[in-house]
Write the structure tokens for this entry.
Amino acid sequence: MQVQSVTDDIFVNLAGSDSIYDGWGANQTFIITDEGVIVVDTGFTNKIAHYLLREIRKRTDKPIKLVINTHDHSDHVFGNSVFGETTILAHSKCRTRIIGRGEERITAYRKFDKTLKGALRGLSITPPQTAYNRDFTKRMGKKALKLIHPSEGAHTSGDTMILLPDDKILISGDVLSVNYHPNLEDANIPAWLNMLDDIKKMKIDQIVPGHGSVSSKDHVSIFADYIRKFNSGARKRAKEGTKEAPVIDGSEDWKLKMIVERNFRLLYNKYSGAEQFSGDVIPR
């Protein structure tokens, strides 16, 4: 893990690797304002959540006033309980999914192996106390944040992106990943592609993605092209009966490669109209 400054008051904690023990490579962000600190996503394990908290305290003694969950997947929200005394905010669909699936997920992960069980010791499912339904702008001190929810879904049905208009920065959650294969488990692919088109129109200079390094809008087209080609390739293979995942040019060295086969199974089953593949990895 390594904390990188995006601006003088915005920082991102970049994962050390894409392994399960490093939370599948998920990022966390914190914003220091004159009224307090805003944390975006809390990580997957005790180690990640407490490291994030220590890094915040190295830079400020201001209170942590708000935690925002960008979506419900475990690698972004299991650390909530470390920040449990702080107000946690998310879209209502994200909150509902954490309540509905959180215990099942953390139980499954604790059965994965002893190392992961230890890494999750002490964490408990902590849903957001506060939820919103429509895009809105919030101020903390002099910092303005616009919370944006893709209404038709994108990476999940409950995504939140945070636009910092004065800084020209977007914190995208997993709506954008940089040089990481995306998780398509809960995706609405047509709506996701529409949202990526909308991001390209935003007045921003930098994007903090859910996975991968801080980027510009240049990567949005690369990521959208990957999703589009992978989706169409899976549809074609389902029609032909070819059970081999497509390889998208340019993505050969992307991280989280272990999820590609799983994505293909999900899409193949969807487009073939039958359960052609059985078995799965733990849901994220």
Notes: The chain has a mean pLDDT of 95. DSSP finds seven helices and twelve strands in the chain. The helical segments are 46-59, 74-77, 92-110, 114-119, 189-200, 218-240, 260-272.
